[in-house]
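Summary for the funding panel

The consortium committed to producing paired sequence-structure records for every protein in the target list. Below we show the first two records in order, beginning with the earlier of the two.
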Amino acid sequence: MEWKKKWETQPGLMLITVVIWSVFIGLCIETGAILFNFVYSLFRPIAAHNLYQGLDLSALMAQDKWHYSGVLSIIVYTNALKAYMFFLMIRIFLKINLMHPFSEQVSELISQISQISIQIAVVIIFNGAYITWLAKRGFELPDLGSFTGGAFEYILMGIIIYAISKVFKRGLEIQSENELTI
């Protein structure tokens, strides 16, 4: 019932919610596929040749299973954090009301998104350093750019969202004061 009302009163927000849902589902599928193939490759090493979209870590697995597990664990964790961030965005768009946009719940969700974004950046930086460390020690690694890039963007996004969360908290205070004076 509430969904139907939101579609009628705030169709733009609901359309954005549908788009965010699709990104969230895509990230969940990607994370699940990498995780499944990672676990499967531990029992069937041939699977390490094509873990996900051509990702071939078979040379690393042949050299050291622990480092192989470390790299893939960090990749899975990063993707899971990204999916969680989009889940929080879904919750924001489902809770927000354009008539009274400032609420404690939405403010808290925005703060959580900024924290998750910075966590993603830190994990990406750590993974990049770990991969560089492995390469210096002679481990064969393919280009992992799509799985280890974007730290700067996530830091920047985290800072911007943090600033938005502070503005949102101030808006919540002003909205509360206005409700008390009316």
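The next record, for a separate protein in the list, is shown here:
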Amino acid sequence: MSTADIKKNAEAKMAKSVESLKGELQKIRTGRAHPGILDQVSVEYYGSAVPISQVANVTLLDARTISVQPWEKGMGPKIEKAIRESDLGLNPAAQGDLIRVPMPPLTEERRRDLTKVVRNAGEDAKVAVRNLRRDANEQAKKLLKDKEIGEDDERRSLDDVQKLTDRVIAEIDKIISAKEAEIMAV
């Protein structure tokens, strides 16, 4: 393994941490309707739990309403029950085959709580990135100890990994502040 491999490996893992953070933040609702909010809700379908998107068409009716159109007649009540029992705090209403899911407006207190959740998710992502930095630095030091690279190469590798870490943490901060602004916007 070379220092370039160490850097490439660390970069790939850090990118996965950022993607994981984005996925986590997508689940946090902001008051605006978003079809991805229902992605984590599972519904009972022939004895197994499947995501709603696999048994119904999930679209937006307007900025504050999600529409769920089941593909099979008998799935409507099951989908409605699954959405109601999820921890999202949503109250779906059936209109024939169509299920409307209005997004309740967020109170100021709830917005502050959500920004705390966002900050915690961001901090968790930063910790993961710092752990990846530590692992990459340990690999470089091991290469130096095994005399596979020189001290200059090791120092250069540590500097490169630090620059990469700084760049990824700045990206995480940017993502967090954008999500906080989205939550606090009325």
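Regarding this second record: The chain is about 60% helix and 15% strand. The two ends are 51 Å apart (CA to CA).
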